Amino acid sequence: MLSKRLDKISPSCTIGISSKVKEMKKSGVDVINLSIGEPDFNVPREAIECGIKSLNENCTKYDLVPGITILREEICKKLLLENNCKYSIDEIVLASGAKDAITNTLLAVTDPGDEVLIPKPYWVSYWEMTKLVNATPVAIETNKNNDFKLTADLLRKYITDKAKLLILNNPSNPTGSVYTKEELSEIVNVCLEKNIYILADEIYERICYNNEFVSVASLGNNVKDITITVNGFAKSAAMTGLRLGYTASNKKIAQGMSAIQGHLVSHPSLTAQYIGYGALKYCKEDIDNMVKTYKKRRDLITSRLDKMKYVDYIYPNGAFYIFIDLSQVAKKYKYNESFSIEFCDEFLSKYKVAIVPGQAFGIDEYVRISYACSENEFIEGLNRLEKFILKIMDNCN
């Protein structure tokens, strides 16, 4: 008999859609993929050269569980210079992707039955990861009028004696919303008062368009002590397949995560770590250029959406997604169980465009579009979306 925990979880919706798109393309179907959160850039060349150099020098044997020293040193420099957070290398733990870093965090700070507070809309895997470690996910209903951002008053309403950890994604996937310093300060004060850890998922922090990104851990030493910052290289350095993430936390938590990782995976791929080192040390200009491109695309996609009837959206100040409100369409669309899932399935089947249903993020009347692709692709994808929406609405009139 298989483990009962398998009954608790659902497959990743975004990965499932991406797999379906690959199968369609393999069969010769021309599909526009606006679903996956994967940069359409290559890993910067100087970063790759660091990986090649490490292989040429036979850096292929076991190394330190929390990660190679030079990379952890470079991460400490980055956190100090860019995020105003002072860490020592024994407070940094490298992981096999940010997903692995989040799982290590959940294993280190929660026990079965502890509640993990997750603001909606949430990244698809937070909910399933929490269930996998036998903790209890609790969805916090946020408000569109506040760009679906958590507030201190709202947080207080969801705190019980079992609450152990708050997951805060900033910039947000799927909305692209970015928290101000004042908003974060109010939230962390509640966590300090109620003795709740904060998992600050800052994987998109380099992709921030208003130059006002604030790391949670920078808000004071007492805040830093309860915060586990999760970051990585997949989004900023286009290293999605290399699977490299990291955490920054207090020493006790870092030691706990390192102990867990030592038994589960030993340490992340050394080649990936050396490439990550190169990305941090030599490739800031490459990363900045990627962000400029994303910002240009953001401006194009929002200007196009502004001309479309029956839609609204959350204006993204970070990441490379746009969360589109189709609640007007949902009122007219005939569906059985889930508007967004059935809408996206029909859109893919008839219009050959892949987008992500809002149900995956906990809000069914929305869809998410990624603009980590060429301008031609997302503009054509939006043109087809408009045709689909108008057909639905015209058939109902």
Give your account of this protein's structure.
The chain has helices at residues 13-26, 45-56, 69-83, 98-109, 124-132, 152-158, 181-194, 221-226, 251-264, 270-282, 284-305, 327-330, 339-351, 375-396; strands at 32-33, 92-95, 115-119, 136-140, 163-169, 197-201, 227-232, 245-248, 312-314, 321-325, 353-354, 356-357, 366-370. With 397 residues, it is of the alpha/beta class. The protein is globular. The N and C termini lie far apart (53 Å).
Annotation keywords:
14 helices, single chain, alpha/beta, seven-stranded mixed sheet, four-stranded antiparallel sheet, globular, 397 residues, 45% helix
Gist?
This protein has 14 helices and 13 strands.
Average of pLDDT: 95
Q: How many strand units? A: 13
Fraction of residues in β-strands: 5-15%
Main β-sheet description: 7 strands, mixed
Q: What's the SSE blueprint?
A:
Layout: H1 13-26, E1 32-33, H2 45-56, H3 69-83, E2 92-95, H4 98-109, E3 115-119, H5 124-132, E4 136-140, H6 152-158, E5 163-169, H7 181-194, E6 197-201, H8 221-226, E7 227-232, E8 245-248, H9 251-264, H10 270-282, H11 284-305, E9 312-314, E10 321-325, H12 327-330, H13 339-351, E11 353-354, E12 356-357, E13 366-370, H14 375-396
Helix pairs in contact: 2-10, 3-10, 4-5, 4-9, 6-7, 11-14
